[in-house]
UniProtKB/TrEMBL annotation:
GO biological process: carbohydrate biosynthetic process
Gene3D superfamilies xrefs: Aldolase class I, Antifreeze-like/N-acetylneuraminic acid synthase C-terminal domain
Location of the AFP-like domain: 295-351
Superkingdom field: Archaea
Record's signal peptide: none
Annotated InterPro entries: AFP_Neu5c_C_sf, Aldolase_TIM, PseI-like, PseI/NeuA/B-like_N, SAF, SAF_AFP_Neu5Ac, SAF_PseI/NeuA/NeuB
Protein name as annotated: AFP-like domain-containing protein
Listed GO MF terms: N-acylneuraminate-9-phosphate synthase activity
Species per Swiss-Prot/TrEMBL record: Hadarchaeum yellowstonense
Length: 351
């Protein structure tokens, strides 16, 4: 299946859709958020994504943290989310205007129905469902009814949980689904990446594009992302920041502008290199195909009327004469003309 998002198409034989995940990395600085949109576009990203949530609708006030990373605020999940800055509708509208001006798609991950409705009012062309909300059936149904493309991250999910989520969305009449393999651990260790899990997703969900959301640290991320593209990922998501050295887990696993530009440059090069799936000669090989292959050649002078024997024939370049596979066919034929030593033999010379 191919999924159209504005002027972009996600699916087979189309460029990899590259998402710069800004999340909350702008740190409450709206000027910085605007700069990140422009920078992501300049780096060549197809989309930039933020995160939209209401702490009171997301987590209880006493929910313990599942990661203990220096630089992250608060002692509980609630405290952390409460201190994490959020964009207002007015700010989102301005970011969307800037994104449109610079030719990049802006969208977000809603963590509740109210946030999804706000994004719908904004006019985002697509949604993202976070890995940890893959079992949030009410949210899945609500977003699915918007009838817009939905990207689902599948970190920490079983294949049955993913099947259930896909079924919920399909049941709402929405088949514009994209699945991303990812590992919900920041930063992800290389031995935990498991890119081969994408193959499983492709086998189980052959009708939907599959991609990869990366949570490893640069510079390892680049090689892993390139491998994912070579394996068939149709969407790549990479966290994006203005400074990888800022405190907190998100900056640590992010690419900065130069990183993102290099990743996208490499992706586009690999896409060209992947080329055609059908094995056949390419145009640039044609000269070598003719001149570097071999033909049957006269090993000695062969007078006209002579019956050709094996010792009269050598196999040499170029390949402008009779192919070597016809050696036994040529043996026993007669020369129709004088054939000089080292001359390439053609069918017109024998009978």
């Amino acid at each position: 299946m191919k999924i159209k998002i504005l002027k972009k198409i996600i699916g087979k034989n189309n460029p990899t859709f590259m998402i710069a995940e800004a999340g909350c990395n702008y740190e409450g600085d709206f000027k910085k958020a605007k700069e990140m949109v422009v920078a992501a576009a300049a780096a060549g990203a197809d989309a930039i994504k933020f995160q939209t949530f209401i702490p009171e609708k997301l987590v209880t006030k006493t929910a313990p943290k599942f990661w203990d990373i220096p630089g992250c605020p608060g002692k509980t999940q609630y405290e952390e989310f409460k201190e994490t800055p959020q964009l207002s509708f007015k700010e989102y509208r301005e970011l969307k205007r800037i994104a449109e001006k610079h030719g990049i798609i802006l969208f977000s991950t809603p963590s509740d129905e109210e946030s999804a409705d706000m994004l719908d009012k904004l006019g985002v062309p697509m949604y993202k469902i976070a890995s940890m909300d893959i079992t949030h059936v009410p949210l899945l149904k609500h977003v699915a009814k918007k009838r817009k493309p939905i990207i689902i991250s599948t970190g920490a999910s079983t294949i049955d949980e993913i099947k259930e989520a896909v079924k919920v969305i399909e049941s709402a009449g929405n088949r514009k689904i994209i699945l991303l393999h990812c590992i919900t651990n920041y930063p992800t260790k290389v031995n935990d990446v498991n890119l081969n899990m994408m193959k499983h997703l492709m086998e189980v969900f052959p009708d939907y594009p599959v991609g990869y959301s990366d949570h490893t640290e640069m510079p390892k991320s680049k090689d892993i992302i390139i491998a994912a593209v070579a394996m068939g990922a149709k969407v790549i998501e990479k966290h994006f920041t203005f400074d990888k050295n800022r405190p907190g887990y998100d900056h640590k696993i992010s690419a900065d502008y130069e990183d993102l530009k290099e990743i996208i440059k490499s992706i586009r090069m690999v896409e060209i290199a992947l080329g055609n799936e059908i094995k056949k000669p390419v145009a640039s090989e044609e000269k070598a195909r003719i001149l570097a292959r071999r033909s049957l050649v006269a090993a000695k002078d062969i007078p006209r009327g002579t019956t050709i024997t094996r010792e009269m024939i050598a196999v040499k370049r170029p390949g402008t004469g009779i192919e070597p596979k016809f050696l036994n066919t040529v043996i026993g034929k007669k020369a129709k003309k004088n054939i000089k030593e080292d001359e390439v033999i053609t069918w017109e010379m024998i009978k």
